[in-house]
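Re: the 512-residue chain
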Amino acid sequence: AIISTGGVEPNGPWLVTGKHNYVLRANCEAIAKELGNALCTPIVKFVPEGSIEPQTSHMTSPGTISLQQETFEAVLTDVAHSLKVHGFENIIFIGDSGGNQGGQRNVAEKLNAEWGSDALVAHVQEYYDYGSVSNYMAGQGLVAGESDNLHDDPVITLNMMITDPNSVRYDERREAGFASINGVSIADRVESLEKARKIVQFRAWTTSESIKKAILHGGTLPMAERSGRGGGRGGQERPAPDPRTMGGGDCRLNEYNCSDTPNPLPTANTVWIDEMTWMDVRDALNAGKTTAIISTGGVEPNGPWLVTGKHNYVLAKNCEVIALKLGDALCAPILKFVPEGSIEPQTGHMTSPGTISLRQETFEAVLTDVAHSLKMHGFENIIFIGDSGGNQSGQAAVAERLTAKWNGSTVVAHIGEYYRSPAGSRNVLRERGVQTDDMPSDGLHDSPGITLNMLINDTKSVRWEERVETGQAIINGVSIADLALSLELAEEIVDARADRTVGLIKAAISGN
């Protein structure tokens, strides 16, 4: 099993804050396929990005979300432990950001010593060798020119672009004449994607070879000296820091690293912080979008039809609609790891393969650090919503503690009714006559409502095509075979949940 860690940080004016997570979406899959016997966990999107308070390093830029080192290592420990008890024999850490490496190495060494021959744990630092990737691509004709002095380079831009061109603002940059980085043009989409494929293939091959060596070695390999990263400033002495510096670079070296430089691109069409650049987040805050929603999902068993990430698929749609209906809100990346039962001995959902659980104290530490990060950037209202029952008590406890600690300077509220609808709430399926009292229950951890709420985000998450082909497109007597009708019902379900939650959030903010 491969546990990959990314980050939410500033990356100049062109790349979204979730840069490393977009890179890992392409790379972890390619590495697992290259190995042939590996699976990828959901990406750990929250990592150490600097001190939260006082703000240091990337935390000085709006949109950055940081974990304390001990919180990060606790998350890695719990995820690895969950995998071990399910029978994974080799657990591999790869990190796409420099600040991830030390924590991964610490946890790998600690767990390897603790578990002995029960499971092998290794941190593969060779994955993060961007210098070797740049050198390889130079041999393929990708030669960077003078550095733009941004937290960005051609290799990482192309590696993101193969996952989603929107993550590098491809269309907007082409239209505005900004489709280049460090002298390398990305304007030709076909040519750029071909280079991107070579980058992913090279990183997958080199990392898979390093993983094989680590497994033979019995753990993390000794640290090797890494090649210098291409397109950088070489041995030049860094200038004195400028107080206006933001964006992951230095204000003295490029105006797009300055806190007061106007955004060169149009307003981002998203409410997700990790789909925005640091400038997008800055401008959204200045425009009054000072409510942040922290949503929590889970990785758990959900019967034979629904994927383990059920709650995360639901939230990917619901948080967006809630934020849009509020009008002044943004969504933090979904917290996909939550308490699912005791890890060892296994209880609750942890008795089923594929479940990943956090200890309660780890979960609450993550919620605390994410909320604290958002507060430091100027968010005035921080809202917790959880799509699973096991998330509710931790969210309520953290909201209560932070409200007391911050003495009302920031509203922190847990909206439990997002999950447990109050009496009198709309039931779309009953209103439409789709569900009635005399219909059967399949006795699964599944229902028509949640299936439809997932379906509107991704039909694959409920195995729609396979179920239609095999005559199994039904749950609790409700057919989902008619895709158009199912999506229509799903839209109504999402709207009903969003309308209810928006009203509750407004009441919490106003104190009513």
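The chain has two domains: 1-226, 288-512.
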